[in-house]
Amino acid sequence: MIERDASNVHPQVVPRRDQILIATCILLICGFSWAYLVYLRGQESSALASSTAMGMSMDSTGGVAGVLLTFAMWSVMMVGMMGPSAAPMLLLFATSQARREARRVPRLTLLFGVGYLTVWLGFSVGATLVHWALNQAMLLSPTMAVASRRVAGALFIGAGVYQLTPLKHGCLQHCQSPVAFLMSHWREGPRGAFQMGLRHGVYCLGCCWALMAVLFAVGVMNLAGVVILTVFILAERVGRGGAIISRVGGVAMIGVGVVLVAAGR
To answer: Under 8 Å CB-to-CB from 207, ≥6 apart: which residues?
Structure first.
């Protein structure tokens, strides 16, 4: 049963110790995620150079170990990409919880974050399976991008079209309005915090899954592409005119996709 209490969702003062703890955890998790991605990109570049020099193809997803490494890569990438845009919701949840019981703020905020990340870990499982299937069908280039420009163009067009749909807009509205989300979906206790994190994660997934698919078009380990998508996701959620940014980005992606399909092979 959902317990709603709008009067308790307004921001309150979180103990300074808890503010520092929560902010530090978010920064460390995102920082370690990006550091790991940079490390993987360096490893990939070295492996690609070696395989090219020896006339060999690089298979980064072969065998169980390769699949697990690919899952780890996707999981860390999702944390690094979604962490910045999730931070406002986590901090607002903490301030809302502070009015109820300040001593439980760190624990319940952690459970909210775990629920949120659970959704993106689930997405990472699906992305890993798609990655493996593309690799087995030899449709991935050595840089982990789809080898066909037409397929890459189709991914851009599909993501762009989704940006213009009511479903995208509805999910984006939930992500843009942390206060409204908490007022509508508040649940008490540890289980409630986890469930709220799950629900918020589902809205975020509905908002961003198509954008993540673009990574297969630009290269999964193309850090420039990852950074651009991360900034775009952050801008459409927390920036002014997020809905306009989302739609303009969608039109731009459709344009890029059409160019790629026209020049495709």
So the answer is: 168, 171, 172, 174, 175, 237
